[in-house]
Amino acid sequence: MFTHHASVDTKLSRAVERLLDSATEDGILPIVQAGEPVLRQRTVAYDGQLTRATLTKLISLMHSTMLEAPGVGLAAPQIGLGLAIAVIEDHVRDDEDDPRDIAELPFR
């Protein structure tokens, strides 16, 4: 998935696991409110700081959260995490009144 491997950041991994534990039974993470500092701070590039299991769960819960929120994507800062990770999914809509040509962007 990534070209080189950094070591797992145990402190960050534990913080992310606590965040993931805050998800609802439906797998929805809390979205931070406008004005939260994390939304204005520079993110840290993801470079293998999380275990594979934690990253997989994070992506899955971000995807579930994104589907419940308006829009076509969700960035980690929106759930209070300062990592440069985002999930995006958009589907072609049958809307004859929309003159734009929109290509499907499936989640993977």
User: Class in CATH?
Assistant: Alpha Beta
What fold name stands as the CATH topology? Peptide Deformylase
Helix count from the secondary structure assignment: 2
- What is the CA-CA span between the terminal residues? 12 Å
Rounded mean pLDDT is 87
Given as residue ranges, the uncertain stretches (5+ residues, pLDDT < 50) are none
* Cα Rg: 16 Å
Would you identify the CATH H-level superfamily?
Peptide deformylase
CATH architecture title: Alpha-Beta Complex
Biggest sheet record: 2 strands, parallel
Tell me what portion of residues adopts beta-strand conformation: 5-15%
Q: Fraction of residues in helices?
A: 25-40%
Read across the widest sheet, the strand sequence of neighbours is 1-3
Strand element count:
4
Number of domains: 1
Look at the helices and sheets and give the structural class: alpha+beta
General shape: elongated
Structure commentary:
It is a single chain. The protein is an alpha+beta fold. It has one domain: Peptide Deformylase (Alpha-Beta Complex), CATH 3.90.45. About 25% of the residues lie in helices and about 10% in strands. It is built from two helices and four strands. It has a two-stranded parallel sheet with strand order 1-3. A two-stranded antiparallel ribbon has the order 2-4. Helix 1 (about 10-20) runs parallel beside helix 2 (about 50-70). The longest helix is centred in the middle third of the chain and has 17 residues, at about 50-70. The chain is elongated and about 50 Å long. The protein starts with 9 loop residues before the first helix and ends in a 20-residue tail after the last strand. The mean pLDDT is about 85.
